[in-house]
Amino acid sequence: MFKKLFPKSQKAKIRWVVFLILIATIIAANFDFPRYWNRGAEWTNTKLDSITAPAFLLEQDDWGIIRWIDDNVAHIPLFPEKEYSLGLDLQGGIHLVYEADLSDVQPGLKGEAMSSLRDVLERRVNFLGVSEPVVQVERSEGSDRLIIELAGVEDPEEAIKEIGETPHLEFKEPRAEEEQIRIIQKAFPEQAAEGLLGTGPSQNYCNPPDPQMISFVQQIAEEDPCFADTELNGQYLERATVQTDPTTGQLQVSLEFDEEGSKLFEEITERNLGSTVAIYLDGRPVSMPTVNQKITGGQAVITGSFTPDEARNLARNLNAGALPVPITIISQQRVGASLGEQSLYESLEAGVLALIVVMVFLVIIYRFSGLLAVLSLLVYISLLLALIKLIPITLTLAGIAGLILSIGMAVDANILIFERLREEFKDGVESTHLAVERAFDRAWPSIRDGNISTLLTAAILFWFSTSFVQGFALTLGFGVAVSLFSAMVVTKYFMKIFLIKPLEKRKWLWTR
Fold first, then answer.
1. Among residues 139, 135, 134, 147, which one has the least CA distance to residue 102?
2. Where are the alpha helices (DSSP H) in 136-281?
3. What is the pLDDT of residue 321?
């Protein structure tokens, strides 16, 4: 069966690759602009629903009564009508102003504290590096403020909550039994005075620990009755990831500490062998595992009844880090687009016009090869726009500039290939098949080196620059990666499938 579906002959392989490329392009193009497909699909589905059930949809049940079969007519699926994410300069958003409390920070370290605060908040609101927020520090006499502008936010309260909240991660170890009893008696002095509270290990809510009673007693006594603080907390956390427990299938958050945190965790587990070590988030116990052996390597796990969203949000917030100083929101307002819809359309019109000029140039100069390169560019644009929408990447004018620049890189790769093809023909290569293979092989080193240098530049810009430049770098990087595929795979297989006898012999069709 597989041999019939995927024959080993070279021609069959080429046909299959081209077929898969076309299918992927059609899916990507309809995902990019779903309204045209969806209109046709909805019209067709309406017609299917209105068809009168034919005779074979009738059946006779056990009582001899003829009735209609409850038949579900197959429907053409619809593509999700998801809009592209636009930046603050194109669609507006919200403007938040926070004031930082630096009263406990030494005067010489206030600038460093504000820079650290800005970095933490930017990581939190721009977790994937694609939403392009504006995060700025504003310092004046007696005031240290942080300005945050977020694009396309519909619920300011939710954004404020997410910005201000950070899970406070703590690891605690058991208190001495006398200390446990003292705190519980402090929480319930009347019952203790009347002798209603026991003093044995089973009477102090800590053996085994009861999370609900711990939280209840902690609110009254303002002290944790069962566990004492340790030096290990969220500041030593290096990474938090969402995992699935292989035994229970439940979601859990895995923690990995840095070198100093690993040493602290090892010491805590060593001195509490056979006892319980508690993991606290925001002052509440969430996991209380029993230590069976000393744990090295700095690995821990937070378990609980997490939903996928809760686990992802917890890991994200732990990775974002704790706020170095307290902040208070003092202003919030909606802001309009700084450039607006007109600027977006003008930029897109300029990009489309430039693309048309490039396509005409390719066809005139490189003839049939240029026409195939134009088809390859259309495949490239469809796939790239689908990636931008799927991730999603927020498009600002800077990001659109990176997108257009990557199109230029894709055209450059095709030009290098076609010029090599022209040289092969000039050198007297008779077989067009052989000339095409050599053209791609000999153009590859130049294409590879040029694109790798661009990808490295994009990576450096992404990791070491601000959010607007990050958007430019991200679209440029994705564009270059997809352009490599379009030039070295799509164009190549498009050329190969058309290397049939009537076209193969006419070398003037393939290049100037």
1. 139
2. 156-164, 177-187, 189-193, 211-221, 259-271
3. 62
- pLDDT tier, 66 (very low <50, low <70, confident <90, very high otherwise): very low
In this predicted model, what pLDDT tens digit does every residue of 106-122 receive, in sequence order? 888 888 888 878 877 87
Angle, in degrees to the nearest 10, between helices 156-164 and 110-125? 130
pLDDT at 382: 94
* Residue 51, number of CB atoms within 10 A of its CB: 8
Query: What is the amino acid identity at position 509?
Result: L
With cut-offs at 50, 70 and 90, classify the pLDDT of residue 64: very low
- Residue among 311, 196, 199 nearest 244 (CA): 311
In this prediction the pTM is: 0.61
Tokens representing residue 263 in the block: 């040493």
The letter for the amino acid at 459 is: A
How many angstroms from the chain centroid is the CA of residue 52?
47
The kind and range of the H/E element at 380 are helix 340-390
212: which residues sit within 8 A by CB, 6+ positions away? none
CA distances from 320 to 2, 120, 286, 421 (A): 48, 6, 20, 51
